[in-house]
Amino acid sequence: MSQRSLEVFYEPNLRLTQAHGLLGYNAGYAEARGRATFDQCQKNLVWRLLGDVEIGPHSTVLDIGCGIGGPSGWIYERYRPARLIGIEYCFSSVRTAKQRLAGKPRSPIFLQGDAHWLPVRDQSVDVIFNLESALHYADKRKFFAECLRVLKPGGVLCLGDITTRHRRTFAVLGTLSRLISQFFTHARLWSSSDYLATFESLGFQFIRHEQVTRQSWNSLADGLDDIGRVRWRGARGYRGRFCYLYFVARLLRDKWLDYDLFALEKPKRVESG
Ligand SMILES: C[S@@+](CC[C@H](N)C(=O)[O-])C[C@H]1O[C@@H](n2cnc3c(N)ncnc32)[C@H](O)[C@@H]1O
Questions:
Q1: Which of 17, 83, 103, 162 could disulfide-link 60, Cβ–Cβ 3.0 to 4.6 Å?
Q2: Rounded distance, CA 255 to CA 269, Å?
Q3: 131 in ligand 1 pocket by Cβ < 6 Å?
């Protein structure tokens, strides 16, 4: 995947979030419709994915695919870990994340980087947070190998992603949409069972898995209602992204897409023979 084309894909998201004062790019989580702002729902998804994973004053946390840094900032404020590093492929998002937190004495660090080649030392990380980003990765096994490399023994990977039970259909649509580049979504969807089988084959220890498709749909549908109520003056080009997200919400509602949250542990000891 070219860095430039992902950058172009996320430009409308950047405009849309800036126009509405949002800090996240994720679908969010809501038990029922009409109860919370989209911003709050995006935070709720972060807390839901982390669950009761321990993050303390000595922890090092990586937020991979951190977007414009909303979730990194929320995690940092709540847990005050020793270090929180946000890694993001798009330069424009890294710039936005840095600008927002500039001048704060203590804040997350944001780096441009690729989830397939993490710019982090071996066995140096306690918790990896990865929300709605792995759907873009061309080689997810390589990403998980990197997670295993950088996690300390006993370290935890929290991964939330959009998945599908109709992988073949989406693969065909993905190939077709490459021909009409403005519809190319950069999504390489897996099913939840693809994820579970891969975690097992790579030796991760299972902590938790839950499917939150309905709650993500509640949140995204409400969020789009809020966005749709505001007049779209001066927010160039995000009309198309609104329609795209509306389509994603429909696919979640009709269960063509799912939303899965996983927590896995890197084994404390590798079993010998
Ligand atoms: C849907 S957004 C989610 C952003 C953030 N996690 C949040 O919840 O607000 C997915 C993000 O993953 C980033 N991304 C995609 N491929 C990546 C890669 N190979 N390495 C790092 N980040 C990547 C995208 O640029 C985008 O910012």
A1: 83
A2: 39
A3: yes
